[in-house]
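Ticket #4471: complex job returned nothing on first submit. Input attached below:
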Amino acid sequence: MNFVVPDFYPAAAEILVAVMALVIMLASTFARRVASDLAYGLTQLTLVFAALVSVLVSPNLLAAVAAVISELPLFGVRLAEVLMSLAEGYAANEVVATFSGMFIGDMLGGLLKVFSLLAVAIALLYGRGYLADRKIDRPEYYLLSLLMSLGMMVMISANHMLSLYMGLEMMSLSLYGMVAFDRESPRATEAAMKYFVLGALASGLLLYGMSMIYGATGSLELSGIAQSIYHQAANKTVLVFGLVFIVAGVAFKLGVVPFHMWVPDVYQGAPTAVTLMISSAPKLAAFAMAMRLLVYGLFELADQWQTMLMFLSVLSIVLGNLAAIAQSNIKRMLAYSGISHMGFVLLGLLAGVVDGDRNFALNAYSSAMFYAVSYVIMSLASFGMVILLSRAGFEAETIDDFKGLNKRNSWFAALMMIVMFSMAGIPFFIGFFAKLSVLQAVVAAGYVWLAVVAVLMSVIGAFYYLRVVKVMYFEEPVDSTPIRAQGEVRFLLSANGLAIAVLGLLPQGLMSLCAYALLASL
Amino acid sequence: MLENYFPVLMFILVGLGFGLVPVILGRLVAPNRPGSEKLSPYECGFEAFEDARMKFDVRYYLIAILFILFDLEIAFLFPWATVFQEFIAAGQVAWFVFGSVMVFIAVLVIGYVVEWKNGALDWE
Amino acid sequence: MTDMQKLYLLVPLAPLAGALLAGLFGKAIGRAGSHIVTILGVAVALAASVVIFQDVQAGNTFNGTVYTWMKSGNLTFEVGFLIDPLTVMMMLVVTFVSLMVHIYTIGYMHDDPGYQRFFSYISLFTFSMLMLVMSNNFLQLFFGWEAVGLVSYLLIGFWYERPTAIYANLKAFLVNRVGDFGFLLGIGLIAAYTGSLNYAEVFAKGSELAAQDMAVTGWPLITAICICLFIGAMGKSAQVPLHVWLPDSMEGPTPISALIHAATMVTAGIFMVARMSPLFELSDVALSFVLVIGATTALFMGFLGIVQNDIKRVVAYSTLSQLGYMTVALGVSAYSAAVFHLMTHAFFKALLFLGAGSVIIGMHHDQDMRNMGGLWKYMPITWITSLLGSLALIGFPFFAGFYSKDSIIEAVHASHIPGAGYALFCVLAGVFVTAFYSFRMYFLVFHGKERFGNNHGHHDHEGDHDDEEVSADHHHGLAPGQKPHESPWVVTLPLVLLAVPSVVIGFFTIEPMLFGNWFKGVIHVGSNHVGLSELAAQFHGPVAMALHGLQTAPFWLAMGGVVLAWFFYMVRPDIPAAIQRTFRPVHALLENKYFFDRFNEIVFAGGSRLIGKGLWKAGDQGIIDGVAVNGTARLVGWVAQISRLFQTGHLYQYAFAMIIGVFILLTFWFNLV
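Support reply: We reran it on our side without changes. The output follows.
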């Protein structure tokens, strides 16, 4: 009996979210009259605190954040000191594994958790008015989003096939529920049904792959798997067979071709607030899943999975960009654009190992991470704009709804233009640097043809982004209802759009944060 | 390597045999005299008055799912109970092992309270 | 970050903050608010520059990165500062003149509806110029370079309702494009061959570059780099033949003519070449090229000043000619003399421009000198300060201009590189011409008969064609019987403050700047070039130099110019007209500015229109639109429609696609195991 009491500290943020989920569940049951507002408020508080706790429990991340804060004027230095003192007394290990090796606390996880928690918080804030207009802002929605966050956090910090799968299912089940949240809408129900069935299929594939890997290596712990392959104790045939299914499972979550079919239908069918949710934070979680499974667990098979990812990414970039052109529905268009963006993330992931040389790995993976993070920022802003244009009884769904936005509200038109430019990869917005760093990684790895294809397709892709800009600026508005939104949505959406521009001018900070997170965690 | 799987093959064959042989025997040996009563769908106790593919009340699923949830809880508790003895003997982590299961049960209790309060257990 | 580094950062950021406040919130903070925040920003920058100046005097220089913008391959793009004597001198000049111009603007732009916009622009300009001079790498230099160009473009076209202003700013923009193209090529060559954009790293590899030839063409690399860089300087510092934009830039409000088109931006090219002295020293060919271009500009642009009647244009041509002097100094490796002249020129030329502006205010925006005369009675401060500025300009002993210009002439005299003889002739003749047109202007404006008020409405410029329309809408002039009067104190105060350095700065700074150690380690003169070493041997203090100057040719040439101007325009005003008649072809040549504009219009503008049309018809419409664009578009549209067909909405087909995907991945399994 050598059972060790686990160290709870690295999982403090997860525990906080779990406890708060229960509290919100009880509170909204017993205080029905204010349930929605109460649940919303508590959820937002929880998310922000969980993000803070995630920083505090990761010493490297804390140091990086404190370094940034101490540069701020006025109370910056003092604030950084306070922050550091909060985490005092905890040994600054770079990587901590706990819960019998099921959970890993490292800077990569910490950073991704912070970004995804904030993304969920922003998505909830944008979506609140939308849900209220449609009378579906029930407390369960916020509860589900919190449980989804918990699932993502478990997944991001997973060091074990089982905990990873558990986190994945927790996230997915919550998302299915959220897609179907508007029970009266047949489209949403249909989308949820499709998402659920295909998700179940993908889960099945993933589980099958996991069982194969377990069969070959005799371990479910990722580091154990890696060791077993390294010592060549595993049957390669079985391993690669399992790898195929693992890649398929990851590809489904990222939504890359040919596992992408759910993406356009679900994005279009789900209430826009939910689309916003699906298109942001879960992409980070899916990136983390890819990192944990492929890089932490199966790095020795990089040659094999890189080839598979290459196939997936080329298909995604080509099909995503081409299909987006034919869309007249903006949510569908953004769905296809998301598919091509995920193809770019894969481009970064597949450039890590060249002929057994691993010197490129750090650069390549950090570029992929940077891309994923920037995509989330852009995606939040773009769907945020779609939500902004919708109101009670009206869904801003088609590109035509953006006609003459400049005449209706020039500030938001400018923001949307920034977002579209950035997504198209026009300098100097964050999307440009994301594309640039990924392409550099690909070229460094020697896949020049891949970079050429990617660039060509993004040039074609620029067309549909610019079409939105054209419609906004050069066409007459069909709908002259003034755009109304709560102050905080206006403020945050503006900040979000400006962040895209500012980070485009000063990308180095975020880039080095990503690189440093990987350096401290690999 | 492959011979290790021989018992499995035997198992499959025996299984197939058990399933198929009585059916084939029955077809061959038994007399076959159909009548209207005999061909009517079998329902235990009451008349078959509509299509078998009828809609079930959704509450049926609700109850079933809730049942499964608590069923699983018990399923988790059995293995725990068997090893708990050993933890008590080892001393040290017994309280932790006890406490973690109490937390597990507490979470389920909260869920139970919530569904009760929300009326999920009322049939009408 | 140390305190000094924070201070370095403060210098450019304070004007930027002012510009943003005035630009974005101009309406909210009002006119007074706008000028207060921008003046405060520039004043802070000036104060910080003074502190940095003292720090540099104490021997503390700085060269480091402030922010790494991005890395691309081995090339790093950074924002960094290089703080050394050259930089800090430029910082002082830029912030001081800019502050003067800010104050002056309060009076000059008093009634303009674009008041806040103007302040925002000039503060933005100050920021860009500071970024340019403080840079420690080529990228930031280029950023500053383009940013000052942009603001200059915006300011020339400040009165955007005027077609002439729009024409002038477009012209400035296009001509600068030519220069910037060369500049960018030069930077590109440097980046390609040294793999670095940092000054110090590039200079360290200078001798390596000098030993190399360019790929493909086989040209000596260092010469190609230097000439490319200098082409950039030619655009920005308006050297022949890229000078054509500067006279037209006088369409902008006078304060910016003083700040941008006289004191600071146009000297960016001079500064850049001086900064690059370690590279230029390695190529005699490039130096000769610089020398000949500069000498040509110095003399022939001076001639044009003689025939101008618009007061601002006279000063503009004088600026061109003085820039030529600076370029000549660069060509003979007297970089510190060039920078010295840059500094003195910044003060007295800003003074002359602001003085001209003050006259223009007094004349109610009539700029024609033939309508002036006898103004000394009505505008005493403007009169005295303009006289001081003119004396400084013609190089009268003890005045600032004397020390710098005389040093340049002596340096040319001592030089042996090819073209030095021609240059010596040009700069000597230039002295005479300078004195002549400066005092022609002075006499026409401040002395003689009072010609204002009586021929209102008659604005025969005889000048270039684009000037004709201008006269109609903004040359108001004085009504009959109206008298000009002195400008308000916000206008005259900067005049007085600028007059002080115009008179004394040369006397006090010549010794450390030219012959002392001030530029040691910053400006590099090769052992095979004379530079200022011969001069240093003969130098016995500023007083001795001035007294000696009384006996030399340049002084008497200048005096001759003054006397001739006095004789022509005060004693016998009929003579110039007679000469004009006799030498009609020469006059026509000068009137039309050597037909540069006509030439450009026909050859470059016409030619590019022709090429453009050809490319448009054959290339664009035929190949690109027909085959490439429309063809691709059709193909893309077709593929997009096909891919849409797959998205049927049927669940089982989606699942089927996934299964197919797994099978395709499995084929990898067969191949990869």
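The radius of gyration of chain A is 22 Å. Closing as resolved unless it happens again.
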